[in-house]
């Protein structure tokens, strides 16, 4: 009913929430966005209070607005992403003095300021990035906002008219970025394209630059002591069979084992999962045989429920040419610390691999792998919030998937959405920051620019990249464990013929007897061959589902235990805004018949039932407005957004550097 307007809303969300298309709300420190649906009875009070008469409308609340302010009503605003982003920047710049202390320094910088900064900061070792641009360009200001949450970097914009500096550095292209640090002096930042998204991505990856609150990744993170498994240097352009086999072992022998009796939906899910593994798992022959055997066994089961022990017996029936290794060895999914990555990483890898194999095999049902994943995750995946999020994404538009191409891209784009949501979270391994994947250095041709300079994916190149990256031929068998070479009888022969590489990799050979005697669902056995246990953050081998610590809960506990909540953290906790977005964006996705056409760039989050909750929290937020500052409401009959700018936090470093560059 409001398709056009909806597209406009979608655009707004992209801009503010997705930022460069590579990150979650990077502008959050400066700008908050809220949406209110004034067609909803529950919101009436607030809509009356702000005297909203027409939809859509946009309100802007500058910093230090009084709590009874109704904001500045903005008329005739642009309905596209870029326009709204620019509008927000203009509004931020329009602050009269005194500007809130944490306001980002969006103004232009003179040669003298740069020089005096360099003079004063000789002893500092952080990076200064200078965006050279034309007067009317927004690139510099957008990059400044993108980098707001990062430390050890400061971004300033210098206009082309600043001839002294431009000539000194021999700057010939506008925009372009030069980075100064003690070692490099000024050097041009190498990027794929001279555009905001690529600048932000490259700057965020400079040595020393980290998201505020994240520890700087230390090289010593990889130095393992003797009781821990050694770090395996691996090639980031490869997918490792060792990760896939470890995923199978952990999922079938540990995760599924938490169900003593498997029946109903769980049984259907298990059958679907095993069937897809049997058909598409591009494994070593014995593993494929084992999967086939267990699939055949499952198909014969006509009962409405089976015991895990029966399943396990079928799974663990070993012959010389049919067995599933009982080892967990993460390679591409290694984390720098043991609480990071591992199993969840390997599950993504597994399903991307399976879906590519299904596409290559031209299976009849393009949704087959997605459905298997959805049901497996729904019934068994130990991280329950993950399962809920995934189910919400599946409900949104998975049924629009009608071809293999769309299926592959659907999983890729949903995975990126999860990456965007989790970027900067505590579960993120500082050595493996969540990025929109594949990043420009992994697949340059996957990225392009729209005519307005915004980032866009080249879908067909991305598809080609995925097909190669996750193809069976491209899988690496390096670091596969020797400990699961053929059982006893074959052992000697196998040892004699085992490739040297595997022995050099220093894998220990586990005694076959031990291996056979271990009951796999026993906690000890699952880890006996795995010096590094499989891990979801905080989760090891739990026997019962109720015991499983989910990622979110764990993170919160961990967080609270580790550090007293700062004001910003508390803000984050009560932060009401994303929930409203969820509703909005879900509806948008539903409106989007193809689901994918527009959806790939957008980052909707799952629908959250507690929609009304946030409005009340928002008013709490208002009365707590020692924090806040600018809010804009954007209202629409069904879909509404409001923007709120919060300069609630003084980033110390930023402040200091701001002083240095008056
Ligand atoms: C179904 C599912 C839902 C999850 N939901 C949540 C959740 O709600 N909350 C939570 O905290 N954690 C969730 N997780 C875990 C989280 O997504 C990560 O798996 C975990 O944080 C480990 O991250 P990672 O850095 O190893 O990279 P992962 O995101 O696990 O990615 C693994 C590898 O896949 C490749 N890759 C990355 N992005 C893409 C892409 N878009 N397309 C193709 N390949 C890609 C990269 O090589 C990467 O190293 C979920 C996991 C799964 C399997
Ligand atoms: C505004 O703040 C004052 C005191 O700070 C409070 O008494 C009043 O109720 C607030 N008004 C609203 C609308 O929250
Ligand atoms: C400046 O750049 C131009 C072209 O990029 C090059 O020809 C010239 O030598 C450069 N001058 C200096 C001083 O580096
Ligand atoms: C850095 O570059 C400037 C201008 O190009 C030059 O004058 C200065 O000597 C350089 N400093 C170092 C340490 O290389
Ligand atoms: C080695 O690592 C283990 C497991 O992380 C830890 O318990 C142990 O204290 C470490 N030992 C040393 C000497 O660091
Ligand atoms: C990583 O693998 C690619 C092939 O996918 C290869 O071209 C590259 O040289 C490898 N890099 C290293 C460091 O081994
Ligand atoms: C990829 O898509 C672009 C347009 O989106 C098209 O111009 C190009 O020919 C396509 N390339 C391939 C290999 O299909």
Automatic annotation (TrEMBL):
GO terms for molecular function: flavin-dependent sulfhydryl oxidase activity; protein disulfide isomerase activity. Gene3D superfamilies: ERV/ALR sulfhydryl oxidase domain, Glutaredoxin, QSOX sulfhydryl oxidase domain. Its cofactor is FAD. Its EC number is 1.8.3.2. Belongs to the quiescin-sulfhydryl oxidase (QSOX) family. This is Sulfhydryl oxidase. GO terms for cellular component: extracellular space; Golgi membrane.
């Amino acid at each position: 009913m409001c398709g056009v307007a909806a597209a406009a809303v979608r655009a707004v969300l992209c801009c503010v929430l997705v930022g460069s298309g590579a990150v979650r709300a990077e502008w959050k420190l400066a700008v908050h966005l809220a949406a209110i649906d004034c067609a909803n009875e529950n919101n009436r009070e607030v809509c009356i209070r702000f005297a909203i008469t027409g939809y859509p409308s946009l309100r802007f609340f500058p910093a230090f607005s009084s709590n009874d302010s109704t904001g500045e009503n903005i008329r005739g605003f642009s309905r596209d992403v870029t326009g709204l982003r620019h509008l927000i920047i203009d509004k931020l710049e329009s602050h009269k003095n005194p500007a809130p202390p944490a306001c980002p320094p969006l103004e232009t910088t003179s040669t003298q300021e740069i020089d005096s900064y360099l003079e004063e900061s000789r002893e500092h070792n952080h990076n200064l990035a200078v965006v050279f641009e034309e007067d009317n360009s927004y690139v510099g200001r957008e990059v400044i906002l993108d980098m707001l949450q990062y430390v050890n970097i400061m971004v300033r914009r210098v206009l082309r008219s600043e001839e002294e500096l431009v000539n000194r550095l021999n700057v010939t292209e506008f925009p372009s970025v030069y980075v100064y640090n003690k070692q490099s002096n000024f050097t041009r930042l190498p990027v794929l394209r001279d555009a905001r998204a690529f600048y932000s991505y490259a700057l965020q990856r400079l040595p020393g630059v980290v998201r505020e609150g994240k520890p700087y990744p230390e090289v010593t993170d990889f130095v393992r002591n003797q009781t821990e498994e050694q770090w395996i240097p691996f090639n980031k352009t490869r997918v490792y069979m060792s990760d896939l086999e470890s995923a199978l072992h952990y999922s079938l022998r540990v995760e599924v084992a938490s169900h003593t009796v498997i029946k109903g939906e769980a049984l259907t899910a298990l059958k679907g999962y095993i069937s897809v593994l049997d058909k598409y798992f591009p494994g070593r022959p014995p593993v494929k045989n084992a999967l086939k055997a267990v699939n055949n066994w499952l198909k014969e089961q006509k009962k409405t429920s089976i015991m895990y022990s029966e399943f396990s017996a079928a799974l663990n029936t070993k012959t010389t040419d049919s067995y599933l290794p009982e080892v967990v060895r993460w390679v591409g999914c290694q984390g720098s610390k043991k609480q990071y990555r591992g199993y969840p990483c390997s599950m993504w890898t597994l399903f991307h691999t399976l879906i590519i194999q299904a596409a290559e095999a031209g299976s009849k049902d393009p949704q087959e792998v997605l459905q298997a994943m959805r049901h497996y995750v729904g019934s068994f995946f130990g991280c329950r919030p993950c399962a809920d999020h995934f189910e919400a994404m599946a409900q949104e538009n998975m049924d629009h998937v009608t071809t293999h191409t769309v299926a592959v891209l659907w999983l890729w784009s949903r995975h990126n959405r999860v990456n965007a949501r989790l970027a900067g979270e505590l579960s993120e391994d500082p050595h493996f920051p969540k990025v929109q994947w594949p990043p420009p250095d992994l697949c340059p041709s996957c990225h392009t620019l729209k005519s307005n300079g915004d980032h866009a994916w080249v879908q067909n190149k991305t598809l080609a990249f995925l097909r190669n990256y996750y193809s069976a031929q491209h899988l690496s068998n390096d670091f596969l464990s020797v400990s699961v070479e053929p059982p006893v009888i074959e052992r000697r022969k196998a040892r004699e013929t085992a490739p040297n590489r595997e022995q050099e990799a220093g894998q220990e050979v586990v005694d076959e007897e031990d291996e056979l005697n271990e009951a796999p669902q026993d906690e000890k056995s699952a880890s006996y061959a795995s010096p590094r246990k499989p891990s979801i953050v905080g989760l090891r081998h739990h026997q019962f589902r109720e015991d499983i610590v989910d990622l979110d809960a764990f993170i919160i506990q961990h967080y609270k235990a580790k550090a007293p909540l700062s004001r910003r953290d508390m803000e984050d906790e009560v932060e009401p805004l994303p929930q409203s977005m969820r509703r909005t964006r879900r509806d948008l996705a539903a409106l989007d018949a193809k689901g994918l056409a527009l959806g790939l760039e957008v980052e909707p989050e799952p629908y959250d039932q507690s929609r009304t909750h946030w409005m009340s929290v928002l008013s709490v937020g208002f009365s707590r407005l020692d924090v806040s500052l600018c809010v804009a409401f954007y209202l629409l009959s069904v879909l509404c957004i409001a923007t709120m700018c919060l300069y609630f936090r003084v980033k110390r470093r930023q402040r200091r550097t701001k002083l240095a560059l008056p």
